[in-house]
Amino acid sequence: MSVLDENVAIFKYFEEISKIPHGSFHEEKIADYVENFAKEHDFKYVRDDMNNVIIYKDATPGYENHDTVMLQAHMDMVCEKNKDVDFDFETDALNLYVEDGWLKAKGTTLGADDGFGVSYMLAILSDDTLKHPNLECVFTVQEEVGLLGSINLKKEYFNAKKMIGLDGGGEISTCTTTSGGRYAYVDKTCMFEEVNKPTYKLIVKGLDGGHSGACIDQEKGNSIKILFRVLQTLKDIQIVSVNGGLKENAIPREAEATFVSDIKPNIDSIVKDLKTEFEFSDSKLDIQLEETEKATKAFTSKDTNELITLYYLLPNGLQHKSMAIEGLTLASLNLGKLRTEDNVVKCAFCIRSPLESMKDELGNKINMIAQLCNASEHEDTNFCGWNYEANSPLRDTLKEILKRQGIEMETEASHGGMETGILKGLIPDLDIITYGPIAEGCHTPEEKLNLESFQKAYKNLCDLIAELNCKTKSH
Predict the structure, then answer these.
(1) Res 387: pLDDT
(2) How far apart are CA 136 and CA 70, in angstroms?
(3) Which of 154, 243, 244, 312 has the smallest set of CB atoms within 10 Å of its CB?
(4) Whole-angstrom Cα distance, residue 117 to residue 21?
(5) Comparing C-alpha atoms, which of 120, 89, 90, 117 is closest to residue 105?
(6) Closest CA to 267 of 285, 283, 239, 289
(7) 142 exposure class (CB count in 10 Å sphere: 0-12, 13-18, 19+)
(8) What does the pLDDT look like over 195-235, one tens digit per residue?
């Protein structure tokens, strides 16, 4: 028995895809579903080797000369559940229920991110009563694990001049810019020598951490940078190992260094200073030094000094603010992960900016400092950003539709990465907005979708597609 009204297309499709396992890296079955949908409706489509699917629908009469519009959403979902819930995301259908006008899943994530976008596109494609120009409906994969599906898209798939990204919510708001990203890695090979000295462990913990896009401007402490700030005050030590952080795109909360020294260092003064500096942004900062099991080998003094200099000098955090949008971070980098593997110390950065030149500049800084300290730097997983553009006919049309309802459209600017940026990099003259309904609790078992907003935002979307500026295609 259906939980939602099957006569409402967006409800029907959301419930159908909720029965199909579609966690990141496991999108084959939902891609099959979308491909079969295209075949059943006799639509032209492309399915690539990553399971991205693009479905093409011809314009309705009178709209043939309008600019082609791209609709885009990702098919994968974040798979999180409560500890006491027996659920297998690779085999089980989501257990949907409605409570006080909100759609939820019992004990698990709902997949409204981005199931609502997938449902919207399927409903639009299946409805022959809607007025619209040529449509390119893009169903991507692996968005939640690094935008990997959209990075694989090819320019020749598209003719669109306008794009509506269906991975943003709020019903009355749209995004105006997102950041591009790049991962940079630094490796330093060190020489070990035998030692016979007392061994100590320096531990930094208690920090709040946070997302390297959303929280990078909040002066949150970076445990790796704090660790090396303490280490650079110490004399005559030799490092055994250094480790910290979990992911490139998360501000690290904990880090530790093991080192040898003839005399136990006194870190009271620097710890006092650091606690004062982070009193308001990270009040639970905890720095401890303890004697530990004796090490038999450590890095040479030369390599230890170069290692400390390297990580003391490497840039981190907020670099530039936007002059066009108040409060928006324009460029940043996050030293997110540090590992000692045998005699090689490795770290990973997430560099963010909608401007390639700023990502290049930060990468160059890392590279130059690495070379000065006899280390190497390399980069990968570069994806484009979407820089703010004051002139957007698409945004103006959405604003007018909401204004007729007595609603003042809100705009948001993000320093996080979105698939809109990748498509903008692929098609530089693309006019872009994002749109979607009200949803809460994204990426948690508390995720929920407001059903009234789900329907209202869909109507607005259909009106938007029908009312876009009737300009002849660019040649």
Answers:
(1) 87
(2) 5
(3) 154
(4) 17
(5) 89
(6) 289
(7) buried
(8) 999 999 999 999 999 888 889 999 999 999 999 999 999 99
